[in-house]
Design goal:
By secondary structure, the protein is of the alpha+beta class. The chain has six helices and six strands, in the order αβαββααβαββα. A four-stranded mixed sheet has the order 1-2-3-4. A two-stranded antiparallel ribbon has the order 5-6. The protein is globular and about 50 Å long. The mean pLDDT is 89.
Length: 146
Amino acid sequence: MTERTVFQSMSHRHVVSLLPQASVWEAACVMTKANCGSVLIIDASGAMVGIVTERDLMTRVLAKALNPQATLVSDIMTHGPLCVGPETKVSQAVLIMIERGFRHLPIVTSAAKILGVFSVRDALPREIGTAVSLAEFNEMVNDAKG
């Protein structure tokens, strides 16, 4: 069985996005309505400038007691997030997520067209297992170099 790509495995096929001047409260409402864990922040030309995730809302807003209606997404977003192409294999995307410590990867074409966001929840157990094995192997190789 061939491994799925991130584009094939995406559960949400529409792009959930906001402009940088949107409030954190608006981001939370959009994410809740779309039942997703992240929102892409795009500029007026449609170019992605950042991402806001559930974790960002918790650690950068709630834990700091910021007012979500007065705080802009541009103040708490991750600027210039790492993206993958639609042909990226799921296990490779999950490996990136394991190594970098995040749960969402925007999917962008070589022409900078935003296709959506791959979430770790979109991966199947065997794809996660493959990624964990790769991560463990990479760790052993890096330890051997050191």
